[in-house]
UniProtKB/TrEMBL annotation:
This is PsbP C-terminal domain-containing protein. It comes from the Eukaryota. Residues 81-235 form the PsbP C-terminal domain. GO terms for biological process: photosynthesis.
Amino acid sequence: MALKGSHTLSHSTLFHQHSQFTYASSRTLISTLFQKSTSHKHIHSSPSFSKRTLLLTTVLWGQSLLLPNARDALLLAQELELQRYTDSKEGFTLLRPPSWTKVDKAGATVLFQEENMGSNNIGVVVNPVRLANLGEFGSPQFVADKLLQAERRKESTMEAELISVAERSGEGGLQVYEFEYKVDSTRGGMKRIFSAAFVASKKLYLLNIVHSDKPESPLDLHKRMLLEQVLHSFDAAA
């Protein structure tokens, strides 16, 4: 699974916060794609998702974020005690912390919450589209710019900063966009968001990992490594 830093990309981006934060961003991305489709007739958005502002911030991946190879990634995942979760019906897979509880949430395909910290969560949303891949919609940077503009228009957003952006190859050469950003909001304070997206079988798959990152209790290194592995593991099911 090759992962390329944004400094090597002409494309880069996508995603969002709390249980509501997670789905607000997913809906924002979907509505952003939908708005473009109304003029270019590329995408159909599921009517179950309301048109709401979307968020995104883009990211320059540092050397510490690069996956050396599949074997090393597997060993690291084992060391971090991550478990494989596969949704064969929707056709995606990812690693997840076994202690994080699966919960039901309207609009979410799957949602895992950290025990006693429900605002820290890992969510996936799947929606039908009329694209073969994300590149048909636009570059990661194009999507990131649109999402960031939308996020900054939200009344609850005090600050939104893109940290890094990357593009990698997934199952069968699948085009996957990844990004990291942080948002300071009146709804929950400072949040760190790791997001990934891809299109497969005419479906848009969105992963959103949200974790509190307040100045008084910043995201620690071990938890960051764990969340990055979850991010990098998001893929179409073989």
